[in-house]
Amino acid sequence: MADKHSVSATESSCVPNPCFYGGVCEDNGDGGYTCTCPAGREGEKCEISAACSGNPCNHGNCTEDPNGYYCACEPGWTGTRCETALFCASQPCQHGGVCIDGANGFYCFCEQGWTGKQCETGAACSGNPCHHGNCTEDPNGYYCACEPGWTGTRCETALFCASQPCQHGGVCIDGANGFYCFCEQGWTGKQCETDIDECKDNPCGLNQQCINHPGNFTCNCTDGYDGTPCNDVDECAANPCQVNEDCINTVGSYTCTCKTGFRPNGDNCEDIDECSFLGRCPDHSNCINTIGSYRCDCHTGFSGPTCTEITTTPPPSTASSTTTTVSGSTVTVTPGTTTLNTFTGSVTTTTAAATTTTTTSGTTATTTTGTTETTTTTQPTPDIGWINGQSVRQNSNGWKVDATMDEKISNASAHQGQQCWYYKSGRNTGSQPGPGDKTPFSPGLSVKVGRSDGTYTAEADSFYVSFWFKMAKDYSTKFGDGTKMLVVAGDPNGTFASSNHLEIYFPSRYRAKVSIQTKESYPSYTECAQSKNCGDNFGGIPNVIADNLDPTTWHHVEMTLRSRPQDYMDEWFYVIDGDTANQKQEGAFYKTQQYDEGRYLYVNRLSFVDITSDAYVSAKKGIYFDDISYKAYNSSNTNVVLKEYSTSFEPVEN
């Protein structure tokens, strides 16, 4: 059936015939026309071939022809229906290469000397000679355009320094497998990132403090030093201490200490009432406190340096006085006077009748006219007759010490007088190292101190000790020597240290000071006594009772034993350099019968024991001791001294 298409027209629209390809035109009478197309044609004017229906040209335009249709392909496509891509249309092959289209792409047949997908690579770039770059052919062969961070003819060398990895001014040097930083002085590390602490090698001089800074250091004088070089400042020259204080210049500083007879009270020093401390004065005397000191006044009827000379007073009379000399002191007998005697070197007695006082060696006899009574008492005499350079055992006065101990009388120093005792080193060896019968023991008193209740047999319950000490080490280098010694109570046999533990220690270090410590009942004196269980660590608790003591001066130690008729209750009191305000109370240290050792050790002498560590034996210099005294008495009557011993290690007086 012919396809009819109508169009409008104004005249006989069929003249001339508007229908193509033999289409028949019919005038519609309304100015339009209709084309009746032959078979195979369509469209308003029969201009469209039925063969182009459905757009058979994939990438082109369909045009009817007598044989059906043909496709006018878009650029880059070919084929009857424009279905085949022409990849070579863009001429991708370089340097004269021949392009061959393929089903899915193209192929280049390169001219001689070229290679690559598009013949873009010269033969010299074959095999990719540029490790980290792009190869480009040139008349001389090729050259490599390297990627960032690489260099070399073939881009084979890394430029590790390109990122400037070296810090703080360090210089970077590239290597085969990395970089190296040459650091500025004061820095270290792979990238010079670490500051060198120059102070760890102590680059500064004596009395200087090293202060590390980033990349360098400075040396400043330590506190208490000034100048170049840094010298010790004598701070005491400016009188920084208060009234009743002594200024002691120390290395790099100073200390203010209360004068003898005074004690700290807040920021001030107050007078010490020495009379409040047990055992200050002998029997038959009253203790009178004075500002910064004290004195002992003999009771009426007693005289002499220790108030032991007895004066008998008859009924009043008008006899004249008699004056005589007693051991270098003047004795004045004056009718009708009453005078208490003090320790001033003179002795004054009171009589009402003619009295004559005479003295023979160590004995004072006083006879009053009209009586027949004569009283004689022995005056204790300090142990004298010591010879410089000899061992204390050579005096045959009761000191007990083995010849292996390094000790002697010395005139190198003295607390007062001319000589002292120098104990350098020496200890027991063999089965009982340390304390033992070979170490020095002072003379034993004829009474023993301890408990007297039950089966205990002590004659006194109290033991008072006083001694002075000074370190023997030359302190000019400001170093201690490691000396460590015990000064403790000794048993009557002179075999064992007994009852307490007082340790003098001078550490082996720069600017060392002397400390004094005891060792306490475990876990404490009070708990041990209350629980009656001192534990496995009995005696293992150190307690510092004085520290920062000047090693160049003499120091005073007082210690008092008070034995009590109760298990675990023996106690010691310690006073250092007269500081009665800070008196230390401790328990007994060494094991007694109540401490599961099966024995009780009484006390009547002193034991001196070198306990210095073996590491410091060659360097230690030991200790000077002087003015040693001790006495036994009962706490119920402190004025009655049962026995006492004293020595200042002085030679025989001329």
From TrEMBL:
Q: Which PROSITE patterns match?
A: ASX_HYDROXYL, EGF_1, EGF_2, EGF_3, EGF_CA
Give one Pfam family: EGF_CA
Q: Does the keyword Repeat apply?
A: yes
Quote the Gene3D superfamilies the UniProt record gives: Laminin (2.10.25.10)
**Could you tell me where the Low complexity compositional bias lies?**
357-381
Q: Which residues does the UniProt record annotate as the domain EGF-like?
A: 10-47, 48-83, 84-120, 121-156, 157-193, 195-231, 232-270, 271-308
Per the record, the coiled-coil ranges are none
GO MF term list: calcium ion binding
- Keywords in UniProt for this one? Disulfide bond, EGF-like domain, Glycoprotein, Repeat, Signal
Q: Where is this region: Disordered?
A: 357-390
The SS bond pairs are C37-C46, C52-C62, C73-C82, C110-C119, C125-C135, C146-C155, C183-C192, C221-C230, C298-C307
- Give the protein name, as stated in the record: Fibropellin-1-like
